[in-house]
Every structure is written in structure tokens, then in C-alpha cells.
Write a structure and sequence with these properties.
Number of helices: 4
Number of strands: 5
Radius of gyration: 12 Å
Largest sheet: 5 strands, mixed
Distance between the termini: 21 Å
Helix content: 25-40%
Structural class: alpha/beta
Length: 105
């Protein structure tokens, strides 16, 4: 069973440098982030071995939030080989996220 990867400043580059990574910037107090959480869990299962599905807790990783200019959450970054190729801001549907992942795969 696939599981999302919790990213920190220590492991961010090593996890996202190769292949596709989907990075959800969230916080425990954020309502839309909590609504998106089950979707992220499902994506981690469905894309296991195809894409790294990741989460960054903005309360704990403020330097990563600053590095990527995260101003509102949830923000999802779509990365390929360490480069941000797309992003979405706000809660969205699983289908919309899957479209973005499939487009960069």
C-alpha cells in the first residue's frame, strides 16, 4: 500500500530530484487542507512506483514554504526531475490533480 512521503528541508531534494513528484503544502489547522488529505492518500496508492506523492507541513517547514513562495495553502507543486512544472492553489478534485500528473508523466 502506497503512502505519501513527508518532506523536510533535509530530504526534499533527494526525493524530488528524479522523476515526478507531487508536493502538497498544507497545515493541520487548514480546513481545505484537511479536505484534500484523503485525496492525497488515494493518489499515493494509485501512483505508487510512478510518482512520489509528498506533503510539506508549512508550520514545521517554513524555509521550504519560503523557498517556493507558498503564500496560501493548500498549494500543490508538480515537479519533474527537481523542477516545478506546474502548480495548483486551493482544494481541488482528485481528477484535476490526476490530469496534471498524467500531463507531465
Amino acid at each position: 500500500m502506497g503512502q505519501y512521503i513527508e518532506l523536510t528541508s533535509e530530504n526534499f531534494d533527494s526525493v524530488t530530484k528524479e522523476g515526478i513528484a507531487v508536493v502538497d503544502f498544507w497545515a493541520p489547522w487548514c480546513g481545505p487542507c484537511r479536505m484534500l488529505a484523503p485525496v492525497i492518500d488515494e493518489l499515493a496508492n494509485e501512483y505508487e512506483g510512478k510518482a512520489a506523492i509528498c506533503k510539506v507541513n508549512t508550520d514545521e517547514q517554513d524555509e521550504l514554504s519560503a523557498k517556493f513562495g507558498i503564500r496560501s495553502i493548500p498549494t500543490i507543486l508538480f515537479m519533474k526531475n527537481g523542477q516545478v512544472v506546474d502548480q495548483m492553489v486551493g482544494a481541488t478534485s482528485k481528477q484535476e490533480i490526476m490530469k496534471k500528473i498524467d500531463a507531465i508523466a
